[in-house]
Amino acid sequence: MDPKYDAVIVGAGPNGLAAAITLARADWSVLVIEAAEEVGGGSRSAALTEPGFIHDVCSAVHPLAIASPFFRTLDLPRLGLELIHPPVPLAHPFDDGYAAALHRGLPETAETLGPDARSWVRLQAPLVRHADVLVREILKPLHVPRHPLAFASFGLRGLPSARMLARRLFKGEAASGLFAGLAAHAIRPLERPMTSAVGLLLGFLGHAHGWPVARGGSGTIATGQPWA
Fold this sequence. Notes:
By secondary structure, the chain is an alpha+beta fold. The protein is built from 11 helices and 8 strands. The two termini are 35 Å apart.
């Protein structure tokens, strides 16, 4: 290691950049090394098709850009980041043309879920109520929860597989499909244990904070400048 630096961070994705910022705040001298031509890791944008169109290479929507305790310590808007909230954070379409929609409001979401309206509200309401506490607990390394009751309300529901939880709680296709679409972000078979935790997390984040996109592309989160 070069003695000029207290730490060397390999990789300039969101985690690497967050680590570098944290160390720099502690007055460490930090070197960040990135093999790619651009920083950002999964938070990058590029012109992949027609001229004038910008595409996000990996991540596209960023609820944790708002909800993350670490991100809240950064004045990203001053540095050029503008997050755009769509009127409806997300929707899950079906073959018959119907779509179950997750709105910021629980009642508006419930209206799209037919016989499972009340079940969705009962599932999500306690998580939305404690959203900020839960995010702090979930994003920490293994630890004794500071808010055990709130964390238990999430953890007990998050232990089963997404398929098991949906079959236990929902009767209709709309709520099951919406929850499955959320849980699929686990990138694991929905029969696996704890895949329901991903569906719950992304669901209550959508209700509590929305699913915003970055103006100019996801790369703006890392660079502060719209992709050009």
